[in-house]
Amino acid sequence: MVNSIKYNFAKTGAKLSSSLLKILPTGGKSFPGLVFLKIGEEEALYDLANKQVEKGSILITGTNGKTTTTTMIIKLLSKDFKLAASVGNNTINALATALLKQKAEFGVFEYGIRDIKHGVPDKVSRLVKPVGVIYTNISREHTQVAGIKNPFEKYVEAKTLLSQSVENGVIITNGDDPNTTFIGKNKETNNKVMYYGLELKEFEDIFEEEKVQCPNCKKELNYDVHYINQRGIYHCDCGFKRPELNVKLTEYTQNIDSCDVTIEANVYNHHKKTDIQYTLQLHLPLVGIHNLYNILTAITAYTAFSINDNIKETLQEFFENYEFIVPPGRFELLEVGDKIVGVGQGDNGDALKVNSLYMKDSIKNNLEFIYTTPDANEEEIFEDHKSSIKALNPEKLIVMPGRVSLEASEAYYDQLKDTFNSEYIPIEFDFQQRIDKIIDLIKTSEYDSIIISGCGEEIVFWDELKKAIKKI
Ligand SMILES: [Zn+2]
Q1: Which residues of 60-93 are buried (b: 16+ CB within 10 A; e: fewer)?
Q2: Cα of 241 from ligand 1 centre, angstroms
Q3: Cα-atom radius of gyration of the chain, to the nearest Å?
Q4: Is the predicted pLDDT of residue 185 greater than 50, yes or no?
């Protein structure tokens, strides 16, 4: 696509900038990639991706679980390959930086996309030309990007574009999620599409779920069961339905502090050009439904792209020894005196539901919910949040702004105030002031169980808040 002289020059320039990294004050993470793309022009990324990585690359995207899933996939596939890999990318510069690090046999990259303009998923797809794209799920979050409304359809389209260039590859997608299933259905002509999900006979959902639109015909989907948010077993009059699963969780037994799961797999392997079948029984810590999905995604990805002869045994050994860690800012249950306090970010509908499920099992006698609201133009997120608040049905509800707009926050409060014993506390966009107020609320609360979650502008807000709570 570009001549090799230009390609080599671009690569040398970027290598040099790598050595400057140590002294760059900020923004160093994507700098070598930025230099590479500036010198070599963006088209040079095509040569970089295809010369640096022998057997091709896979990209992982979605709304929830990208980082956890990518981390698992990297650890698993590094048993088979010399990998080029990175987590947390959401720009083409970061991706180029990751590709520049070393020559590799296989590439595994997380790629987060909020909108087409910032994520350029069509360009990334064309230039990286991945052999596989992995979708976790697509639910409503960040419906506003850089002050501009980003409708859900556009958000889905942005994620869809990431697999636009994939041919004769493997698309791995969440079959329980109609949005990611629809992406998969449209890729079946040129690719193997592998669906994963839950196939549980008895499942009780505590949330009142919103109506979900059929991605194919826009009518309302019918659900036999909702697992969480839009994920479940669904069908539509137009024929669109939850697909046959290639990797499915068929049994789940919860013990006091652990769980036992059965997972059945029948997955096409990209390198071996054959289907791999096995049944896996895993004994795991109590990891929550979101991590069960992360595990299914990683299992499907490893089975599709491994060159190992003992895929099942490798997975067994890996997951039974895996340390599930709580990423920064995420929900945690803390003991504060004789109170139990659940705290952490819940920026999208899914996240707050997962937090609420955790909290629900730990409520002692009565609950106070300190809810931090979304911003202006984020009504969709608020709608999802509302079903979590309803499911927990707190004795006391405190509403505070979580993002910038105080007007928007008060308008959300107006929609809640008559349903709950509630109070609105307007605090301007200042982390420290908001943290101080929350600490004060915890100290003076009359309730023995408190959940603090919702939107917050930065992970650091939740991390600082958790630190402050631990000091009480
Ligand atoms: Zn339909």
Answers
A1: bbbbbbbbbbbbbbbbbbeebbebbbbbebbbbb
A2: 8
A3: 23
A4: yes
**Short-list 249, 248, 449, 471, CA closest to 358:** 449
| Centre of ligand 1 from the C-alpha of residue 218, in Å | 6
Query: What pLDDT is attached to residue 143?
Result: 55
What's the gap in Å between 214 CA and the centre of ligand 1?
5
- Cα 134 from Cα 169, distance rounded (Å): 11
Q: How many domains does the chain have?
A: 3
The tens digit of pLDDT for each residue in 218-252 reads 999 999 998 888 899 999 999 999 999 999 999 99
Ligand 1 center from residue 240 Cα (angstroms):
5
Tokens standing for residue 337:
């005196």
Q: Are the C-beta atoms of residues 382 and 412 closer than 8 Å to each other?
A: yes
**What is the domain extent for residue 303?**
192-325
Q: In terms of domains, do 355 and 298 share one? A: no
Distance of CA 115 from the midpoint of ligand 1 (Å): 25
- Whether 85 and 60 map to the same domain: the answer is yes
Predicted TM-score of the model (pTM): 0.79
Q: Measured in angstroms, how far is the CA atom of residue 222 from the centroid of ligand 1?
A: 10
Task: Please tell me the distance between residue 228's alpha carbon and the centre of ligand 1 in angstroms.
Answer: 20
- Interval 4-17: pLDDT, tens: 444 444 444 444 44
Sole residue written with tokens 């990297």: 74
